[in-house]
């Protein structure tokens, strides 16, 4: 049964915050609770980990939503999830909209999603959401590929005019597809035959030759027999993935302490993946996804992993740019302001763990990414189709375009 976010909006509980730090983001001033989470200059890895671990009360339970086991696998094989001071359970979902459905329904405490689902949920009326950590990988194709049927004579994106293309609406794949099409002078709303499907249905539909093209993930590319690649996601996204929770979870002091420890471990796990590429490729791409080592290495080398960034002005600007692009191209019925839904209380944890691991995030820039201006965008159509991926409310409206980056050949 699909959940409707409209019927699951949680009421906020007001809290008195004794200690706050102000974060100026895109014109808004957000005050967030900030316990002493930073490592001191004299702390080593063990000291910092012990401080956060010892602060978690006994008996806390966290349910973490993920996609395709991309967090639980490195959490386990790295050994960095051992002796967590809380009972942790992982729930696997197919796509960010499904993660948000579970989060809003209270089935999970925190979850990982990409860059598109949150603005769509906010526009649909959901308010009880907070981003507490963020990974960015600007310039990466994100292991997302636009492929065509073998022998179809589709050589580039321009050839897709009038063709049927399968994609999951309301997701990063939707955003990347619309960007690729727009850069080729095509509008996803009127110049192609949109086939909006659940994420798990895209590859099988393409394999059955029911569509001319599809936007697929890296592992699906190889399982489909390596069909011709028209373009990949390079320059069409920020590689933004966020850790999101409910405000009601943040109103629970015990769970806040558990989330602090979880955030530190999440940063450390991602940094471990960077340093242990071969082990990660074997564990994820080979063992988990059933690819060969060579295929996994190709995907790893092509996209990389990204880095955790503090939730500061620049990251807020990037996320707002993404949201504005969604609105200006008709995916959202109203503008949304991202800043109130960014919670910076764990910034010191992110910065401290990166420092202890010797990780320096690269400059958060993506010169090939741009947003359609209001002047160049087509008149927005109904946003119901994109929102339906999260709300469960069906619509007869053709899915709409999302964002326009500069065209980049794969």
TrEMBL record:
Origin species: Advenella mimigardefordensis (strain DSM 17166 / LMG 22922 / DPN7)
Transmembrane segments: none
Keywords: Signal
SUPFAM superfamilies: Periplasmic binding protein-like II
Lineage: Bacteria, Pseudomonadati, Pseudomonadota, Betaproteobacteria, Burkholderiales
Protein name: Putative ABC-type aliphatic sulfonates-binding protein
One Pfam family here: NMT1_2
Stretch forming the signal peptide: 1-38
């Amino acid at each position: 049964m699909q959940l409707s976010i409209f019927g699951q909006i949680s009421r906020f509980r007001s809290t008195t915050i004794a200690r706050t730090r102000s974060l100026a983001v895109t014109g808004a001033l957000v005050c967030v609770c900030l316990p002493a989470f930073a490592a001191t200059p004299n702390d080593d890895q063990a000291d910092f980990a012990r401080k956060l671990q010892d602060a978690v009360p006994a008996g806390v339970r966290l349910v973490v939503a993920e996609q395709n086991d991309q967090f639980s696998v490195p959490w386990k094989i790295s050994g960095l999830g051992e002796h967590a001071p809380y009972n942790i359970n992982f729930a696997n979902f197919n796509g960010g909209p499904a993660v948000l459905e579970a989060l809003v329904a209270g089935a999970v405490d925190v979850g990982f999603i990409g860059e598109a689902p949150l603005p769509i949920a906010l526009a649909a009326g959901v308010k009880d959401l907070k981003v507490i950590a963020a990974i960015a990988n600007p310039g990466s194709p994100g292991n997302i590929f636009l492929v065509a049927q073998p022998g179809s004579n589709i050589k580039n994106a321009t050839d897709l005019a009038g063709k049927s293309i399968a994609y999951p609406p309301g997701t990063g794949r939707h955003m990347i597809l619309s960007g690729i099409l727009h850069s080729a002078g095509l509008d996803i709303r009127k110049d192609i035959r949109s086939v909006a499907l659940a994420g798990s249905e895209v590859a099988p539909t393409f394999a059955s030759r029911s569509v001319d093209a599809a936007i697929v993930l890296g592992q699906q590319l190889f399982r489909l027999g390596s069909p011709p690649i028209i373009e990949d996601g390079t320059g069409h996204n920020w590689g933004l993935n966020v850790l999101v929770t409910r405000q009601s979870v943040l109103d629970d002091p015990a769970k806040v302490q558990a989330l602090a420890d979880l955030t530190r471990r999440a940063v450390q796990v991602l940094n471990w993946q960077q340093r242990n590429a071969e082990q990660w490729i074997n564990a994820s791409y080979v063992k988990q996804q059933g690819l060969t080592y060579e295929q996994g290495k190709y995907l790893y080398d092509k996209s990389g992993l990204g880095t955790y960034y503090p939730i500061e002005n620049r990251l807020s600007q990037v996320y707002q740019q993404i949201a504005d692009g969604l609105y200006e191209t008709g995916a959202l019925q109203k503008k949304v302001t991202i800043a109130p839904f960014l919670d910076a209380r764990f910034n010191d944890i992110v910065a401290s763990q990166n420092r202890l691991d010797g990780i320096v995030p690269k400059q958060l820039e993506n010169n090939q990414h741009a947003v359609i201006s209001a002047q160049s965008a087509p008149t927005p159509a109904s946003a119901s189709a994109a929102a339906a991926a999260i709300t469960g409310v069906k619509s007869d409206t053709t899915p709409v375009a999302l964002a326009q980056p500069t065209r980049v050949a794969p």
